[in-house]
Design goal:
This protein is of the alpha+beta class. The chain is built from 3 helices and 8 strands, in the order E-E-H-E-E-E-E-E-H-E-H. Strands 3-6-7-8 form a 4-stranded mixed sheet. A two-stranded antiparallel ribbon has the order 1-2. The chain has a two-stranded antiparallel ribbon with strand order 4-5. The radius of gyration is 16 Å and the shape is globular.
């Protein structure tokens, strides 16, 4: 997922933020942006407009987490709900299993998991204070038939 680019909106009235500065950082994010832009039940959305402070478990310092997406959705029950959404590979949502031999790759995987967990816990608390929900969407959601 080493691709990135700027997204050109079709429905500019749905976007909350700078419509000329929508960056996608993976093909999965691009696919999700197209869905948000075109789905009639998505009332509003933005990309990386919500910044959540979190404490990194690696250095104990505050950092800024730019949540991938915000959305306001009209549900099937005709309720309006708001979400903060992160797009990540499913494997990054799982706690790494310790191998027999500790490798650099395993150490990096653990670091990524710890940082993601800290970000997501902070985002969940932030979202709840704002009356929203925080969710992580993986390829298991994006590529349903």
């Amino acid at each position: 997922m080493a691709y990135s680019g700027r997204y050109n909106l079709k429905n500019k009235g749905k976007y909350k933020g700078d419509p000329n500065n929508i960056i996608w950082r993976s093909t999965w994010e691009l696919k999700f942006l197209k869905y948000l832009d075109n789905h009639p039940n998505i009332l509003e959305f933005s990309s990386e407009e919500h910044v959540v402070p979190y404490i990194s478990p690696l250095d104990g310092k505050y950092h800024r987490y730019f949540v991938d997406f915000y959305l306001k959705v009209l549900t099937k029950e005709k309720e309006i709900k708001e979400y903060l959404v992160e797009i990540k590979p499913y494997v990054q949502t799982l706690e790494p299993k310790r191998p027999k031999k500790i490798t650099e790759s395993y150490v990096n995987t653990v670091k990524t998991y710890l940082i993601n967990s800290a970000k997501w816990n902070a985002a969940k608390k932030y979202a709840e204070k704002q009356g929203m929900s925080f969710i992580v969407i993986t390829e298991n959601h994006l590529f349903l038939k």
